[in-house]
Design a protein that fits this description.
Radius of gyration: 19 Å
Distance between the termini: 38 Å
Bound molecules: coenzyme A
Order of helices and strands: EEHHEHEHEHEHEEEEHEHHHEE
CATH class of the largest domain: Alpha Beta
Structural class: alpha/beta
Strand content: 15-25%
Helix content: 25-40%
Shape: globular
Largest sheet: 5 strands, mixed
CATH topology of the largest domain: Peroxisomal Thiolase, Chain A, domain 1
Number of strands: 13
Number of domains: 2
Strand order of the largest sheet: 1-7-6-4-5
C-alpha cells in the first residue's frame, strides 16, 4: 500500500499536472423523437430512464480519429503548446474501443495529423474507463521522468458499432472526443493529479461486448450471426455494477488523498446515465449540485465522456482553479477507475 498522500502540500514528488482541455462533437444531432421514428421508444422513456435528450453522431465515412484530432488540437492550444518547438509532447495516448481499424492503433495517425511526428503513440482499450486508465499511464510516465508532457485523448464513435434495431443501446450512446494535456509539475500546484485508482473483473466480460469479429470468432471459417458483429450490452446488470464500482473507486481515491465528501468541489463521473451519476453522488455524500453532468446533451460518449464533461464544465465556468475534483468511471471489461485532482488555472 502506498502511503496516504497529502494533496495540499508536503509531498514534493514529481506529478502530472493538467494544463489543457479540449473537446469535439460531430455536428449531426439526433433527438429522442428522431430515434422514436425508427425504433419502438419515446422521448419520455429515454429521458426518464437515462436523462438523455440528444446525442451527436458521425456521418458515414467519419472515423474516431476525425474527432480525436480536433479535440487534441484544442487541448494543445489550451495548454499553450508550441507545435513548432522541440518535442512539443513526448507521448500521445488515445483511449478508444472504436479505433479507425482493428490494426494498427489509431493514436499514431492522430499524432501525425496533429503535426507531432515520431512521438510515441498508442491506444488504450478500457471502453468507458479508458480515459481514467490513460490518466494513470500519463501519470506514470511523467512521474518516472520518461515524459515531460503527454497528450491524452478519449474518443469513440459508438454509432458505428451499434445495432440499429436495438433500442436498449441506440438510446444510450453518442459519438465524441475529449482531450487533456498533462505536464510534469509538483503535488501542490493547481492541476496536480493526486491519485488514480484502477480495477477490473474479466468474469464480467459479457456485460458489454462485441461477440464476433475478434480473434475468438474472426468470422472467416465459421458462420457468424450478424447480430454478433454489433455491440451488445446487458443494461440492467451494467447499471448495478457501474453504481457499485464507480462509488467504490471514487471512495478509494478520496481516502487516498484524505478528502471527506464535503471537501469535493466537483464530482465528474463517467456520463453513462443521469440516474447512475445521481446515485453515485448520493452514495459518496457529495451534494447533488456538485455532481456535474452533460449527459442530457451528449449521451454516453464512452472514452470521451469524462474529458468532454471536464471541457464543458470548464467552459461553463463550473470548474475553477483550485477546485478539488473527483473523477470516476465504469466500463466494459469490466473495468473501472477513479482519480482525484486539483483543477488548474487555465489561461485560455
Ligand atoms: N425505449 C423503450 N423501451 C426500452 C428501451 C428504449 N430505448 N430500451 C429498453 N427498453 C425496454 C426493454 O426492451 C425491456 O422491455 P421488455 O420488458 O418488453 O423486455 C424494458 O424496456 C426493460 O428493459 P431494461 O433493460 O430492464 O430497462 P432498464 O430500465 O434497465 O433501462 C437502460 C435500460 C439501458 C437505459 C439501463 O439499463 C441503463 O441505463 N443501463 C446502464 C447502461 C450504461 O450506462 N452503459 C454504459 C455504462 S459504461
Amino acid at each position: 500500500m502506498r502511503e496516504k498522500i497529502e494533496a495540499d502540500g508536503g509531498d514534493r514528488r514529481r506529478r502530472a499536472v493538467l494544463c489543457g482541455v479540449g473537446g469535439y462533437l460531430p455536428p449531426t444531432v439526433v433527438t429522442n423523437d428522431e430515434l422514436a421514428v425508427r425504433l419502438d421508444t419515446s422521448d419520455e422513456w429515454i429521458r426518464s430512464r437515462t436523462g438523455i435528450r440528444t446525442r451527436h453522431v458521425v456521418e458515414p465515412g467519419v472515423a474516431t480519429s476525425d474527432l480525436a484530432v480536433p479535440a487534441g488540437a484544442e487541448a494543445l492550444r489550451s495548454a499553450g503548446v508550441d507545435l513548432g518547438g522541440h518535442r512539443p509532447v513526448d507521448m500521445v495516448i488515445v483511449a478508444t474501443s472504436t479505433p479507425d481499424h482493428h490494426c494498427p492503433a489509431t493514436a499514431p495517425a492522430v499524432a501525425s495529423r496533429l503535426g507531432l511526428p515520431a512521438v510515441p503513440a498508442f491506444d488504450v482499450a478500457a471502453v468507458c474507463s479508458g480515459f481514467v486508465y490513460g490518466l494513470a499511464l500519463a501519470d506514470g510516465v511523467i512521474a518516472s521522468g520518461m515524459a515531460e508532457r503527454v497528450l491524452l485523448i478519449g474518443a469513440d464513435t459508438f454509432s458505428t458499432i451499434l445495432d440499429s434495431t436495438d433500442r436498449g443501446t441506440a438510446a444510450v450512446f453518442g459519438d465524441g472526443a475529449g482531450a487533456v494535456v498533462l505536464r510534469a509539475g509538483e503535488a501542490d500546484e493547481p492541476g496536480a493529479l493526486h491519485t488514480v485508482e484502477l480495477g477490473s473483473d474479466g468474469a464480467l466480460a459479457d456485460l458489454i461486448t462485441i461477440r464476433a469479429g475478434g480473434s475468438r470468432h474472426p468470422g472467416r471459417d465459421e458462420v457468424i450471426d450478424q447480430a454478433d458483429l454489433w455491440f451488445a450490452m446487458r443494461g440492467q446488470a451494467v447499471y448495478r455494477h457501474a453504481v457499485t464500482r464507480m462509488a467504490d473507486a471514487a471512495r478509494a481515491a478520496m481516502a487516498r488523498v484524505g478528502w471527506a465528501p464535503g471537501d469535493v468541489d466537483r464530482f465528474v463521473g463517467h456520463q453513462a446515465n443521469i440516474r447512475i451519476l445521481d446515485t453515485v453522488g448520493a452514495e459518496l455524500g457529495v451534494p447533488a449540485e456538485r455532481v456535474y453532468t452533460n449527459v442530457s446533451e451528449v449521451g454516453n460518449t464512452v472514452a470521451a465522456s469524462i474529458p468532454l464533461a471536464l471541457t464543458d464544465a470548464y467552459n461553463a465556468g463550473e470548474l475553477r482553479a483550485g477546485d478539488r475534483v473527483v473523477l470516476s468511471a465504469f466500463g466494459g471489461g469490466a473495468t473501472w477507475g477513479a482519480a482525484a485532482l486539483t483543477w488548474p488555472d487555465l489561461k485560455n
